[in-house]
């Protein structure tokens, strides 16, 4: 991906006011200083149900925005959605981008769509503050495409007056906004080639839907909890080819919480992801890379875990196929690769695990590890002397130098591996049909186009050699 910093820079252009589809005030700026053709809302209307925000424009949101039920919003390549951090109303409720209809973000490698805050507020100090409410796809959102899109600085607190609280999606006073939320068990969602970074809460929180989450970069997800990808009941999901850097708790939290007759078991294929520095900013003995619970049917394989605090965990493993709390006995969590650098964490919870090194966390006698069953065939670095042997040999990532609690992603890093890397051998070969991606053959149709999940690669991690 060519997600260049210059795309985040503002431009001094003429502002044109318009009223959006649901009457929220916005400002749009056109880079050729001409009024946008089409309807009176500043976008191109191909018909009364479809609104297009043109490419290379800036939409300034100063109020909550909603794509109404039955309507479609298409955001073209290079468009920037800049969200005010002042909030809405007397209590300054964080601005929320609600999708009751369909949303298609059609960025490209050269011109991604951007959801962010004003440029002078895009600072390292604000990375985990939570400045706006993120994208919330409700139970009536049928389709959503997030392609080559950057979403950042989300995670505002859900309070009284927040649309998600009024709709019963989140609880005022208890929840913070993820970067993306879904809540339709029949919805179709494709999130690909995108960057979800710098958020107080989860990167993606799936409470329903069929989804492909592939080839994205997640970075700095979660302040004092939260994951890169968090899946609940009512979901069928392929998660593949993603890089997850420094999620506060886990790269993947896979749970069938909320399962009922209407909301089916969570089903997840999670393969060929690279998870780095997970869990070190979270206290307690929870978190560290992958957490599978509450009867989720999860196949987790061929993933590369680097400098994570703990290994894959499966609480309540001794309650097989219990729909409330137990572990789904059909799940396979195996053929993963756990690499460790030699650096010591600058945050050590001595009154808990006392784990200070990644290899030490992998070797820790955790109550939620199940030796010989979970990760029975995985490569696990358990001693300092094994660190060099099991080094993945990235093209450009200093595995022994980046602090375990660092969370700012560096664009210069390259998680492809060098020829001869040990992660290129020993992975699962992809022949078992029950491990096949759910959407690898027939795919998911979104906006008239069929998207397919990446095929299983017989290596560990998101990338092979260049």
TrEMBL record:
<protein>
    <recommendedName>
        <fullName>Right-handed parallel beta-helix repeat-containing protein</fullName>
    </recommendedName>
</protein>
<keyword id="KW-0732">Signal</keyword>
<feature type="region of interest" description="Disordered">
    <location>
        <begin position="27"/>
        <end position="48"/>
    </location>
</feature>
<dbReference type="InterPro" id="IPR011050">
    <property type="entry name" value="Pectin_lyase_fold/virulence"/>
</dbReference>
<feature type="signal peptide">
    <location>
        <begin position="1"/>
        <end position="20"/>
    </location>
</feature>
């Amino acid at each position: 991906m060519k997600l260049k910093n210059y795309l985040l820079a503002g431009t001094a252009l003429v502002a044109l006011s318009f009223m959006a589809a649901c009457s929220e005030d916005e400002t749009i700026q056109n880079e050729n200083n001409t009024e946008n053709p089409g309807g009176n809302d500043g976008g191109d209307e191909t018909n009364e149900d479809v609104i297009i925000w043109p490419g290379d424009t800036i939409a300034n949101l100063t109020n909550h925005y909603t794509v109404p039920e039955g309507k479609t919003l298409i955001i073209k390549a290079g468009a920037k959605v800049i969200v005010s951090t002042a909030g809405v109303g007397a209590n300054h409720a964080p601005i929320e981008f609600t999708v009751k209809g369909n949303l298609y973000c059609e960025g490209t490698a050269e011109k991604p769509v951007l959801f962010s805050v004003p440029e002078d507020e895009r600072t390292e100090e604000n990375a985990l503050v939570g400045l706006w409410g993120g994208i919330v796809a409700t139970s009536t959102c049928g389709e959503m495409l997030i392609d080559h899109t950057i979403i950042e600085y989300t995670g505002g607190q859900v309070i009284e007056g927040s649309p998600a609280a009024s709709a019963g999606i989140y609880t005022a006073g208890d929840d913070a906004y993820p970067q993306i939320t879904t809540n339709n068990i029949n919805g179709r969602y494709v999130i690909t080639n995108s960057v979800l970074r710098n958020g107080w809460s989860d990167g993606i929180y799936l409470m329903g839907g069929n989804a492909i989450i592939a080839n994205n970069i997640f970075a700095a997800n979660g302040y004092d909890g939260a994951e890169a990808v968090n899946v609940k009941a009512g979901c069928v999901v392929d998660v593949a080819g993603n890089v997850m850097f420094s999620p506060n708790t886990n790269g993947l939290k896979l749970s069938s919480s909320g399962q009922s007759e209407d909301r089916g078991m969570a089903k997840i294929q999670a393969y060929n992801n690279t998870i780095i520095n997970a869990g070190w900013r979270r206290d307690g003995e929870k978190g560290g890379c992958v957490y599978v619970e509450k009867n989720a049917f999860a196949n987790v394989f061929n993933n590369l875990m680097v400098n994570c605090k703990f290994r894959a965990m499966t609480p309540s493993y001794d309650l097989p196929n219990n729909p409330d709390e137990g572990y789904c006995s059909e799940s396979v969590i195996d053929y993963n690769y756990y690499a460790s650098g030699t650096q010591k964490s600058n945050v050590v919870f001595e009154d808990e695990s006392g784990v200070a090194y990644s290899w030490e966390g992998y070797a820790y006698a955790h109550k939620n590890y199940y030796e010989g069953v979970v990760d029975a065939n995985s490569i696990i670095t358990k001693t300092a002397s094994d660190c060099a042997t099991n080094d993945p040999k990235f093209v450009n990532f200093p595995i022994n130098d980046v602090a375990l609690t660092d969370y700012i992603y560096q664009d210069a890093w390259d998680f492809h591996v060098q020829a001869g890397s040990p992660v290129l051998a020993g992975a699962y070969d992809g022949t078992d049909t029950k491990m096949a991606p759910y959407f690898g053959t027939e795919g998911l149709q979104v906006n008239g186009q069929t998207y397919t999940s990446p095929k299983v690669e017989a290596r560990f991690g998101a990338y092979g050699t260049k």
